[in-house]
Amino acid sequence: MTKDYSISQEICLNPSGGLNRLLEIMARLRDPQTGCPWDIEQDFHSIAPYTIEEAYEVADAIAQGDMAELEGELGDLLLQVIYYAQMGREQGLFDFHSIAQKIADKMVHRHPHVFGDDSRDKSAAQQTIDWEKIKAAERKSKGKQQSRTLDGVAINLPALTRATKLQKRAARVGFDWPSTLEVLDKIQEESIELIEARDSLSPAAQKEEFGDLMFVMANLARHLDIDPEEALRAANTKFTARFEYIEDELHKQHRDPSSASLTELDALWDKAKDALKPTPD
Predict the structure, then answer these.
(1) In whole angstroms, how far apart are CA 192 and each of 200, 205, 211, 214?
(2) Which DSSP string corresponds to 125-175?
(3) CA distance 256 to 66
(4) What is the model's pTM?
(5) Residue 258 DSSP label
């Protein structure tokens, strides 16, 4: 028996349909009879990489200060949630409304200083401590009491972000250097070990020592209250701008970087640093 899609079509084509329109569009895309073959084939695992990509594109639009682009990227990210909700609905696991209800309940429960009787007269640091206590109580109530300090830090986070979160967890139980001086000493120690590994050890050992150095660098960022992912993204942006300046300068001579000597490239790099230096306010 052929389904009557007339009502669905009306919802999908209504420019004022709002969220219900988007939910209906996703249901139609996943419809086994009339949906999109690509969308029908997807599952939770295949969509996950797209979700990560969309989250980074949101962050990129924010970094560029492009609010028009941000609006579109937020829509792309919302579509990922809609996608999971539809697949969950098809399998009888959850739907968009249950997802929204669950996060709303969680936010109310975790903000008793806003929605309950707790005092709002506390620092952000104290609120973070209270947040973790509430999360621990939630886990215990679900029979998921975690016995290890580092449990629950997502494995698939970007490596630098996960390193920082692991270190923050360890610091809460006192496993931390008292100041940046000890961290800087450790960076020097790890740098020496990496050089020694380069000269005498296997590639696997060199990789391990490099990882140790990166881990300590993330620790230094934490002590300086710097987001290491954000700092590295900024460094990537700066490198890109300077290298493109080099290419532009060589292009004026009808040349490209491969035709220039390292001495020439270094000189142009220094020129780029001066030319692209931020203008003082």
Answers:
(1) 12, 14, 13, 13
(2) HHHHHHHHHHHHHHHHHTT----STTTT--TTS-HHHHHHHHHHHHHHTT-
(3) 31
(4) 0.66
(5) G
Residues 6+ apart with CB under 8 A from 121: none
47-60 in b/e form (b: 16+ CB < 10 A) is eeeebeebeebbee
Of 30, 25, 26, 5, the residue nearest 15 (C-alpha): 25
The residue among 92, 88, 82, 91 whose CA lies nearest residue 29 is 82
Q: Which residue has the tokens 């970007």?
A: 158
User: Chain centroid to CA 97: how far?
Assistant: 25
Q: Residue 202, by phi and psi: left (phi above 0), alpha (psi -120 to 50) or beta?
A: beta
CB atoms within 10 A of CB 246: 20
Which of 57-61, 105-109, 247-251 is the most confident on average? 247-251
CA distances (Å), origin 205, targets 186, 195, 214, 272: 18, 11, 14, 37
CA–CA separation, 21 and 32 (whole Å): 19
Q: Is 280 a residue whose pLDDT tops 70?
A: no
Confidence of residue 281 (pLDDT cuts 50, 70, 90): low
Question: Could you write out the DSSP letters of every residue in 174-222?
Answer: T-S-SSHHHHHHHHHHHHHHHHHHHHHS-HHHHHHHHHHHHHHHHHHHH
